[in-house]
């Protein structure tokens, strides 16, 4: 018999229950708080699937859909921030091979838990976005690759897909437009690397999540060597709004280069950790004071990791000066990434933080490329002995050399995800490392 | 290859022309630039894992791996810039930080990729002070291969080989990250007839051959190009021997048409038939050693008596397709044209050639002789009829043959046939065995045995099942007393003609 | 494929077989269904033992080594049965900052086992896992397939007690 | 020399005898500075760098330290070291020399083998008194090189990895 999975009600992160705060700008999460929003009828009653009807009924040609998304300047919300419109346009127009659209719901980046809100509360928004995206790139099949641990979210998505089939939004000849499309939920089984675009493709092919060599790029030769597009949950969820209100309307939100809104999942030493949707370009100071309720216990901010653990760290001063958009964060040498912000107060020992991160990347390195497989282990061991009282000055030079020799030398960027933080922690917080040197005498 | 489109690429500033689409690593090697690589192998799919073949491509800030690059027009590559050499050195360092460095007890020492590249690209002082990851050391993967998981650099060549070439898919990389290990399912024995190929392509000492385990150090071995004697496929091999005294192993040699980079396990152990324990090391008469000269003299006198009385039809010659073209030609020149012997006997080679087919769908074929086609062609050209072994046994028992010349190859395959002949033979028939193996002479107690060369000592040509003539240039002799068939027959014919003209001293 | 003698023949339940055939229809290559089938098998047989792996290998037409590669790569697949309540403590940054390591140590000492082991009565298995994607409500423990968030030592003890009674409920 | 001396034969002899006799009695009574010593009661004291008959060292456990890696045989200019490697009976050790022979007649005692050895398994010893009746006995094996009485069992290799050997899993090879 199949064990019946039980889930508990308290899955929702805290902050989302209250009504939107003044500084928030809920576009995707506008109706998120409505109960049973994950059911198709409630979703349709709030304007759901209108975008799909607009695309298939008018009908819009796939190129028009792509141009609309290009006009919105929507950038990938998974971490790389690559313009979605361009990504879709790379898929060859010829139909000799089947095309695939894969939704990257693996969300394993430490500090990131924003996709979970959409997966559990607004599954239909993502499904609608996936159908539109598949129509745009001519994909007959799409898969929601969801991380194995999100068992409850996988069930919600699965039920939503069945509802969509029953409502005629999936299957054969959708809304009489002649466009057939099948969608399936595919559970991962616990591997951070499957969040990487080609790692996900390898995993979906029934193999170990080993990223593939690029070139060939997935748009040309991806899943089963056919043209494939991999988009993040939040990216796809934004597509229906863009189709309904037009790309231009989306550019009015946020800044010129970082248009629209972004879901930020905040954790660490703040009073109200949780998932918030804010307009791009909001200053971190406002975000911290108004939305996050300031630092927990009134402590002083020491550092902030903006985009998930693989983003280089920002000092308190830098954080206070930056605004939450791709360009500003990049100007401080970090990355917006997936928007998994971790706030650290003055009591945090950043060398221990870095050691914890190195344990994560050592454990999650898939082991395919030598620099990353051996380098992550080496960095963790160096940091381990560094913090266990055997700190030497050459360790710092060695850490710098090893992380330098990992950056840009591997098939995927997992090596860079630990190498860049190591470099940034040592450059921006040298005093933290000095303390250990003095302690070791 | 002439019709192929050529493209111009610039390698280290020098413009060269290479076939379009050729892999950059191969193209560079053809033009004298050695790009270091572990996981790339021309016969396997591209893995791009070891990151040793990083090169600088103009217009691309990041270093690119060369093994994933196909040559296309105006591709500009630099392999000797400072940035590339330091990248290669650091990739090598990463390979070595968890390596046990147990070269004293590792069979691969001397031909190990890590040693070679450390001397060419490494030469750094290791700064690895942390504890190395320990893994299982000596794991028995069946009767051909021994695995050492600690030495493995996880280049996945062996895994790709079992999945793409031998198609047994019994090797895999388990676990994750630097705890990853190579092995079979629960370390069960490997399957298939191509296991030892994984030992050849393993760049380090992780997979070592059980047969060659601790036998000899590779820098003591000399190499001689030859062709495998296992079957009619004619895989090109190189014979590894020490100063011609003992053969330690066979390794496949690349040949585009015949066996590419591979060879089967059956053929790999055919060298054992050439080694000391199996060999007839000196001429014998009825089991008693005697100098080679006297043996030839004895043979000449008996032959002379018969031929003088015009009874050349009482001489029977048994031949086998294990012999090279040159040997067969010298047999025909001496025995047929000079002595007029007509009765030749052999196994049913026609049937073998017709029934010849690959047994395991890849290299190993059913016809167990390396030169069957050549053998048939030589005898058909000279229009000499080949009688069957049954005719020979009948003739022997009838007594119409009382001078029997047996050309017996090495190996146990032939012994049942020669055994049948030996049993059918009358005790007083004069038998001459030209064979490298002791096993054959034991079957003919009263015979005059002359030690000839084993297959891997021969220099000559054999024709494989495709009709491809392949040459063997061994050029070493394991025993002072043994001579090639051509030499023996040469001595015989010169002794015979001397005896006839009663002049000229017998030259040693 | 010649299976070696110690491998017993196992079979999906009738329901499982139906689910397996349905899964095959969802993918364009049989091998793509490997992960869902392994989830299905782990759900039915409790763990991916040698017999199960050989059975799945036959179903998906792969060699057992290729299936074992996938099983040993992913954290969620176990080759040995885990306890009835598999307590998985998140060890990554936000949960670590919220003290998940102390919770793990205290649970191990309370249950008398080390990290990664199963209690002798087969009730509990305690393991350390990487980020579970619930950092806002750190520290988090996943029991079998359910997240228990914002845990404090007291809440955790209440959770373990409710697990002992067989009905884990939100503390 | 005066004419009488050269003509009369006797004076020359007596003079010679006086010189030899002088040395003879001075040495006999121990006053002379003669270089020879009463061997074997007294022995020359050679420097610590003296290169005599080789020593094969042992591990602390008493096993032979040599791993049969053939580096000494390779480095030996006289090619007088013959080694046959084999699977070690100790399940924790992979390789050991079943046969280790040095042909002392060929050996030039240059010490190249000692330099080549990566695990301090062979050293140049201090023995030089190796009388044998036939040349076959000069080919000395493991027993002589490792356990001859003059070593008094003090030949322990400095190179050993106890914690690595302890953690090493036992080898599983048929």
Q: CATH topology of the largest domain in chain A, which one? A: Rossmann fold
User: In CATH, what is the homologous superfamily of the largest domain in chain A?
Assistant: NADH-ubiquinone oxidoreductase 51kDa subunit
Q: Helicity range of the residues of chain B?
A: 25-40%
Shape of chain B: elongated
Query: What is the level-2 CATH architecture name of the largest domain in chain B?
Result: 3-Layer(aba) Sandwich
- Low-pLDDT stretches of chain A: 1-14
Shape of chain A: globular
Greatest chain-chain contact: A-C, 68 and 52 residues
* Main pleated sheet of chain A: 5 strands, mixed
CATH class of the largest domain in chain A: Alpha Beta
Compact summary:
The complex is a heterotetramer of chains A (441), B (508), C (171) and D (174). With 508 residues, chain B is α/β, with parallel strands linked by helices. Helices cover 28% and strands 19% of the residues of chain B.
Describe the structure.
The complex is a heterotetramer of chains A (441), B (508), C (171) and D (174). Chain B has 508 residues and is α/β, with parallel strands linked by helices. Chain B has helices spanning 24-30, 82-96, 113-122, 157-164, 196-201, 265-268, 292-308, 325-338, 349-354, 372-381, 389-398, 415-424, 438-443, 485-501; strands spanning 6-11, 14-19, 54-57, 64-65, 75-78, 139-140, 145-147, 172-174, 181-183, 207-209, 222-227, 236-242, 246-252, 284-285, 288-289, 315-318, 343-345, 386-387, 403-407, 430-435, 448-451, 459-463, 469-473. In chain B, the strands form 6 sheets. An 8-stranded mixed sheet of chain B has the order 15-14-21-20-19-16-17-18. In chain B, helix 2 (82-96) runs antiparallel to helix 3 (113-122), helix 7 packs across helix 14 and helix 8 packs parallel to helix 14. The longest helix of chain B has 17 residues, at 292-308. Chain B starts with 5 loop residues before the first strand and ends in a 7-residue tail after the last helix. Mean pLDDT of chain B is 91; it is low at 503-508. With 171 residues, chain C is of the alpha+beta class. In chain C, strand 3 (141-143) and strand 4 form a beta hairpin. Chain C is elongated. With 174 residues, chain D is α+β, with helices and mostly antiparallel strands. Helices cover 27% and strands 14% of the residues of chain D. Chain D has a 3-stranded antiparallel sheet. The longest helix of chain D is centred in the N-terminal third of the chain and has 20 residues, at 9-28. At the A-C interface, strand 3, strand 5, strand 9 and helix 14 of A face helix 1, helix 2, helix 4, helix 5 and strand 4 of C.
């Amino acid at each position: 018999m199949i064990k019946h999975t039980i889930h508990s009600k308290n899955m929702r992160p805290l902050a989302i229950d209250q009504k939107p705060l003044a500084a928030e700008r809920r576009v995707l999460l506008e109706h998120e708080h409505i109960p049973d929003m994950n059911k198709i009828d409630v979703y349709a009653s709030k304007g759901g699937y209108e975008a799909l009807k607009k695309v298939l009924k008018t009908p819009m040609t796939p190129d028009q859909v792509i141009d609309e998304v290009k006009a919105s300047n929507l950038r990938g919300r998974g971490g790389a921030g690559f313009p979605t419109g361009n990504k879709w346009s790379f898929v060859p127009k010829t139909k000799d091979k089947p095309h695939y659209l894969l939704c990257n719901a693996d969300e394993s980046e430490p500090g990131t838990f924003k996709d979970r809100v959409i997966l559990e509360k607004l599954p239909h928004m993502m499904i609608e976005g996936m159908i539109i995206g598949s129509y745009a790139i001519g994909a007959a099949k799409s898969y929601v690759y969801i991380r194995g641990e999100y068992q409850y979210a996988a069930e919600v998505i699965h039920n939503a897909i069945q509802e969509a089939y029953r409502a005629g939004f999936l299957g054969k000849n959708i809304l009489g437009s002649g466009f057939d499309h099948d969608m399936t939920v595919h559970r991962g089984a616990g591997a951070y690397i499957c969040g990487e675009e080609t790692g996900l493709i390898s995993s979906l092919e029934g193999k170990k999540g080993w990223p593939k060599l690029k070139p060939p790029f997935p748009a040309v030769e991806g899943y089963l060597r056919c043209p494939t597009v991999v988009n993040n949950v939040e990216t796809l969820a934004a597509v229906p709004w863009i189709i309904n209100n037009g790309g231009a309307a989306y550019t009015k939100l946020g800044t010129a280069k970082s248009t629209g809104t972004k879901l930020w999942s905040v954790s660490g030493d703040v009073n109200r950790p949780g998932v918030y949707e804010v307009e791009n370009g909001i200053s971190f100071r406002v975000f911290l004071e108004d939305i996050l309720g300031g630092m927990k216990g009134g402590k002083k901010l020491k550092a902030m990791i903006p985009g998930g653990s693989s983003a280089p760290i920002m000092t308190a001063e830098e954080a206070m000066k930056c605004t939450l958009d791709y360009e500003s964060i990049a100007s401080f040498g970090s990355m917006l990434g997936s928007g998994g912000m971790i706030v650290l107060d003055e009591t945090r020992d950043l060398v221990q933080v870095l050691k914890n991160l190195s344990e994560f990347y050592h454990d999650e390195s898939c082991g395919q490329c030598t620099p990353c497989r051996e380098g992550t282990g080496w960095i963790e061991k160096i940091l381990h002995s560094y913090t266990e009282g055997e700190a030497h000055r050459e360790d710092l030079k060695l850490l710098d050399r090893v992380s330098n020799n990992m950056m840009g030398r591997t098939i995927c960027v997992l090596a860079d995800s630990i190498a860049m933080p190591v470099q940034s922690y040592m450059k921006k917080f040298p005093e933290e490392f000095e303390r250990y040197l003095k302690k070791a005498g | 290859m002439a019709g192929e489109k050529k493209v111009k690429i610039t390698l280290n500033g020098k413009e060269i022309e290479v076939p379009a689409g050729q892999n950059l690593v191969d193209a560079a090697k053809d033009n004298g630039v050695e790009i270091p690589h572990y996981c790339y192998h021309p016969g396997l799919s591209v893995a791009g894992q070891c990151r040793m073949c990083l090169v600088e491509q103009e217009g691309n800030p990041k270093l690119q791996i060369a093994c994933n690059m196909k040559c296309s027009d105006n591709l500009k590559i630099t392999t000797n810039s400072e940035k590339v050499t330091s990248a290669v050195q650091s990739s090598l360092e990463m390979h070595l930080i968890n390596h046990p460095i147990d070269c004293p007890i590792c069979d691969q020492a001397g031909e190990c990729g890590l040693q070679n590249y450390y001397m060419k690209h490494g030469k750094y002082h290791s700064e690895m002070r942390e504890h190395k990851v320990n893994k299982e050391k000596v794991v028995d993967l069946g009767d051909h291969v021994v695995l050492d998981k600690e030495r493995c650099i996880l280049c996945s060549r062996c895994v790709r080989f079992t999945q793409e070439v031998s198609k047994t898919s019994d090797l895999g990389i388990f676990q994750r990250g630097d705890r990853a290990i190579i092995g079979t399912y629960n370390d069960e024995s490997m399957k298939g007839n191509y296991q030892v190929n994984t030992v050849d392509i393993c760049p380090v000492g992780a997979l070592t051959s059980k047969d060659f385990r601790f036998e000899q150090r590779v820098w003591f071995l000399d190499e001689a190009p030859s062709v495998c004697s296992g079957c009619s496929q004619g895989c090109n091999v190189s014979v590894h021997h020490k100063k011609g005294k003992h053969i330690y192993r066979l390794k496949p040699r690349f040949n585009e048409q015949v066996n590419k980079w591979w060879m089967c396990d059956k053929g790999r152990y055919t060298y054992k038939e050439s080694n000391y324990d199996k060999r007839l090391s000196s001429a014998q008469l009825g089991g008693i050693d005697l100098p080679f000269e006297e043996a030839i003299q004895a043979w000449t006198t008996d032959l002379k008596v018969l031929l003088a009385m015009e009874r050349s039809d009482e001489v029977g010659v048994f031949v086998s397709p294990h012999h090279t073209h040159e040997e067969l030609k010298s047999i025909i020149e001496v025995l047929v044209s000079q002595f007029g012997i007509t009765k030749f006997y052999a196994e049913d080679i026609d049937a073998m050639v017709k029934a010849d087919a690959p047994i395991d769908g890849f290299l190993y074929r059913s016809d167990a002789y390396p030169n069957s086609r050549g053998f048939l062609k030589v005898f058909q050209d000279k229009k000499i009829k080949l009688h069957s072994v049954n005719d020979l046994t009948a003739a022997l028992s009838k007594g119409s043959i009382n001078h029997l010349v047996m050309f017996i190859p090495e190996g146990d395959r032939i012994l049942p046939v020669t055994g049948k002949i030996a049993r059918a033979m009358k005790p007083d028939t004069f038998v001459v065995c030209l064979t490298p193996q002791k096993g054959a002479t034991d079957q003919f107690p009263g015979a005059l045995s002359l030690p000839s060369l084993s297959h891997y000592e021969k220099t000559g040509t054999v024709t494989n099942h495709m009709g491809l003539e392949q040459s063997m240039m061994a050029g070493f002799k394991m025993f002072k007393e043994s001579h090639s068939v051509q030499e023996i027959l040469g001595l015989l014919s010169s002794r015979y003609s001397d005896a006839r003209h009663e002049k000229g001293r017998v030259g040693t | 494929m010649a299976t070696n003698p110690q491998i017993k023949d196992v079979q999906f339940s009738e329901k499982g077989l139906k689910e397996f055939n349905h899964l095959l229809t969802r993918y364009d290559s049989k091998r793509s269904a490997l992960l869902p089938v392994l989830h299905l098998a782990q759900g039915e047989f409790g763990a991916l033992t040698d017999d199960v792996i050989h059975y799945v290998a036959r179903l998906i037409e792969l060699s057992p080594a290729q299936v074992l590669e996938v099983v040993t790569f992913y954290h969620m697949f176990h080759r040995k049965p885990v306890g009835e309540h598999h307590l998985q403590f998140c060890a990554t940054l936000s949960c670590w900052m919220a003290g998940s390591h102390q919770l793990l140590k205290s649970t191990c000492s309370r249950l008398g086992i080390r990290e990664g082991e199963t209690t002798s009565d087969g009730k509990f298995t305690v393991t350390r896992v990487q980020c579970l994607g619930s950092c806002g409500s750190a520290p988090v423990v996943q029991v079998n397939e359910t997240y228990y968030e914002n845990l404090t030592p007291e809440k955790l003890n209440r959770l373990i007690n409710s697990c002992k009674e067989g009905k884990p409920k939100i503390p | 020399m005066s004419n009488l001396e050269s003509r009369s034969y006797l004076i020359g002899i007596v003079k010679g005898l006086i010189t030899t006799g002088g040395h003879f009695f001075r040495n006999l009574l121990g006053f002379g500075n003669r270089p020879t010593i009463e061997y074997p009661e007294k022995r020359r004291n050679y420097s610590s760098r003296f290169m005599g008959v080789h020593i094969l060292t042992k591990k602390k456990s008493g096993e032979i330290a040599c791993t049969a890696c053939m580096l000494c045989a390779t480095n030996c200019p006289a090619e007088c070291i013959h080694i046959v490697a084999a699977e070690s009976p100790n399940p924790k050790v992979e390789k050991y020399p079943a046969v280790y022979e040095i042909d002392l007649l060929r050996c030039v005692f240059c010490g190249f083998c000692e330099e080549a050895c990566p695990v301090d398994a062979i050293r140049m010893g201090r023995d030089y008194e190796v009388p044998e009746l036939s040349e076959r006995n000069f080919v000395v094996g493991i027993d002589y090189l490792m356990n001859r009485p003059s070593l008094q069992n003090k030949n322990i290799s400095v190179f050993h990895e106890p914690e690595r050997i302890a953690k090493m899993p036992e080898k599983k090879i048929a």
